[in-house]
Design goal:
heterodimer, A: mainly alpha, 0% strand, B: mainly alpha, 25 helices
């Protein structure tokens, strides 16, 4: 499982970075999405994959009876997904209004502020 | 004490929430904003005094013990940064009273300012790597909106670069946090520090820690705008209104520097000869590229933007030099010359940040007044300020000379300490770079002076013609100059009372170099023993 996920994460990073190096605004934002998903999966994998169950304590006991999965990385990812969602939503509107103002989706044309 | 640590994060949120129902009342919004900032300033000072008085303070949210709960911790560095951030916030809130146009105020400029301060204070006070990420995102989101509010073409294009590079840095930061958790099983900074200092790292772990150190260096480096990751800064900082530029210039990059200082004194101390030497080299390159970039510019705020980069170099330089005190050679006494020099370098960094935040904001605020009166920031089209506005000219000269390091202003002492530490550690290359960059800074400041203040105003400029716009722009400039005057006064005060302030910086360097106090405050011995007992008790069960 680790091996498969490693390949998936690597591909996501590679695809994300490739898209970000294009000149198109839309590809840039898809690249950003892929990059943040890759980071989320990386947390998931790096924190350790096991065949643990949900970390629930049966009624009447004060600790779980079997091995349980570590809930913290999942909480981290959940937070990161929510933040990523907000950020991407903002970025989409930003890129859309940038397109409307400058009438181009080519990043190489957006040089008004460069020196 | 508990409340004091939470208030700097809670108050701005509260003020922002109060501002929302007042959405349509511009005047009311302005005054709530200023009053909120002033209360916040009072709280920040109280926190600093409390920390100076009784050492590192920590509080666990919801009373969950340290590695499990959400930790807020304030050592001297964090408290100093909170004071500076709110000082900046208050200055900019007052400056915004007359300088922000109706359109921006109608779209939530003031609430956003407070949310920005909340994110920044949160980043300074949090004791947990993941919460640092969350606070960074709060800060970034509000800065994104502040940067694009107004929707001019330059702002949009600058914002695309700013947003994209900062999101990449956040993704790297998040990945680093994930791997760090995978390796250590904790994200509490004090817990991490204790764990990494107690346990012996295997060779593999050692290598992995260095990889992680590089990930965090890149992630925070983008936010701090160090070489070669600074490109978003000069492309975006001159596009929004001067008040927004000023708060960005003084605060956002410094949060990156703070995070670098925090992780590279607390967590990544396993291989300082590699990591901190690299930081030192980057510091030198940052200084040089920043100052050369500034020399090539011909617009007021673009010159200042590039100078932020070169100044970041100085702050990072102190961190690089501090390696001598972070991991001393075996058997070296606590008062050996190289350890003392390393401590001096780190204190120099802290002092440099104190000086820089005040001075840099002030310069941007002055540039805002100039642009308002003349309608442009192009050096060629400016002039005449010394004749018509002698007071403002003096208020520019004070921070400008301070930035270049002319005694007895604050910048001189900050540079002096760093150079002294560099000489003691025999790092001559970085010392020569620092001194040369100081000279070039003076050149840039002279260039601004010689174009904006000294010559007569160009004949077709609003000032020379006494045009209607000029007369209209003069209304309300007094409110903008008031915070400039206060900050300039502070620059002089820091310069003249450098001794006491520097001893505070030294204390904060001591706390950073001996993190035991920090660890103990966050993770009291009783709690650690309690957990150990609990684990041992479980182990004994059949």
């Amino acid at each position: 499982m680790n091996f498969v996920l490693a390949i998936v994460i690597g591909s996501l990073y590679a695809a994300g970075l490739y898209l970000m190096m294009r000149r198109n605004l839309v590809k840039l934002i898809i690249g950003l999405v892929l990059l943040s998903q890759a980071a989320n999966l990386l947390i998931f994998t790096a924190a350790g994959l096991g065949d643990g169950r949900a970390p629930l304590v049966p009624p009447g006991l004060d600790e779980p009876t079997t091995d349980v999965a570590d809930p913290l990385p999942q909480a981290l990812i959940l937070t990161a997904i929510v933040i990523g969602f907000g950020v991407i939503a903002f970025t989409l509107t930003l890129f859309h209004s940038a397109y409307r103002v400058s009438q181009t989706d080519d990043l190489d044309e957006m040089k008004a502020t460069d020196t | 004490m508990n409340l004091l640590l939470v208030l700097p994060i809670l108050l701005p949120l509260l003020t922002a929430a109060i501002l929302l129902p007042a959405w349509r009342h511009r005047v009311l919004q302005k005054w709530i904003s200023v009053i909120g900032m002033l209360i916040q300033l009072g709280v920040a000072f109280t926190l600093l005094l409390a920390v100076m008085d009784s050492g590192v303070a920590a509080v666990q949210m919801g009373a969950w013990p340290a590695p499990f709960g959400i930790t807020l911790a304030a050592d001297l560095l964090a408290a100093i940064m909170v004071v500076l951030a709110t000082l900046k916030g208050a200055a900019v809130a007052i400056y915004s009273l007359t300088s922000i146009d109706k359109g921006r105020e109608a779209y939530g400029y003031h609430p956003l300012l407070h949310v920005l301060i909340m994110g920044v204070c949160g980043a300074f006070l949090t004791g947990d790597m993941f919460n640092l990420y969350v606070c960074f995102e709060i800060m970034l989101m509000s800065s994104f909106v502040l940067l694009t509010l107004g929707g001019e073409r330059g702002q949009m294009e600058g914002a695309i670069k700013y947003v994209t590079l900062n999101l990449i840095s956040s993704a790297i930061f998040l990945a680093g946090v994930g791997i760090l958790y995978g390796m250590t099983g904790t994200l509490n900074m004090a817990d991490l520090a204790a764990m990494l200092r107690e346990g012996d790292l295997t060779a593999d772990d050692h290598l992995m820690m260095t990889v992680l150190a590089m990930m965090f260096l890149v992630a925070f480096g983008v936010k701090a705008a160090i070489f070669p990751l600074f490109f978003w800064l000069p492309a975006s900082y001159h596009t929004p209104p001067a008040a927004v530029s000023a708060i960005f210039a003084g605060l956002l990059t410094k949060v990156g520097v703070y995070a670098l200082i925090r992780v590279f004194t607390l967590i990544f101390v396993h291989d300082v000869t590699f990591t901190h030497t690299l930081i030192l080299v980057i510091a030198g390159l940052t200084m040089v590229t920043g100052v050369l970039g500034a020399a090539a510019q011909n617009e007021f705020r673009r010159i200042l933007s590039f100078h932020i980069i070169s100044q970041i170099g100085y702050m990072v330089m102190g961190l690089g030099l501090a390696a001598a005190a972070i991991a001393p050679a075996l058997g070296e006494a606590a008062d050996s010359p190289s350890r003392l020099a390393g401590r001096l370098a780190l204190a120099g960094s802290v002092f440099y940040i104190m000086h820089h935040i005040i001075v840099k904001t002030n310069l941007f605020l002055v540039s805002g007044v100039v642009e308002r009166l003349q309608g442009t920031g192009q050096l060629k089209k400016l002039g005449g300020f010394y004749r018509s506005w002698p007071g403002l000219s003096i208020l520019f000269l004070i921070p400008a000379f301070s930035l270049a390091g002319i005694p007895p202003l604050s910048g001189f002492w900050a540079k002096f300490v760093l150079v002294k530490a560099g000489l003691q550690l025999e790092s001559y290359a970085i010392v020569i770079t620092a001194l040369a960059v100081g000279l070039l800074t003076l050149f840039s400041m002279t260039k601004i002076w010689a174009a904006v203040f000294w010559p007569d105003a160009p004949e077709d400029s609003p000032m020379a013609k006494e045009s209607e716009e000029y007369v209209a722009a003069k209304q309300g400039v007094g409110v903008m100059i008031a915070p400039i005057a206060v900050l300039a006064l502070l620059t002089v005060v820091i310069g003249l009372s450098a001794g006491p302030l520097f001893s505070v910086a030294l204390d904060s360097a001591d706390q950073l170099l001996n993190p035991q106090a920090y660890i103990d405050a966050v993770r009291p011995v009783s709690v650690v023993e309690g957990i150990a007992d609990a684990i041992a008790a479980k182990g004994e069960k059949p």
